[in-house]
Amino acid sequence: MQEKFEKSRDIIAEKFDLPKDVVLNLPKITIIGNNEITIENHKGIILFERDIIKINTKVKVINIQGENFEILYIGDSTITISGRFKSVSYEV
Question: Which NCBIfam families match (predicted)?
Answer without folding.
Answer: spore_yqfC
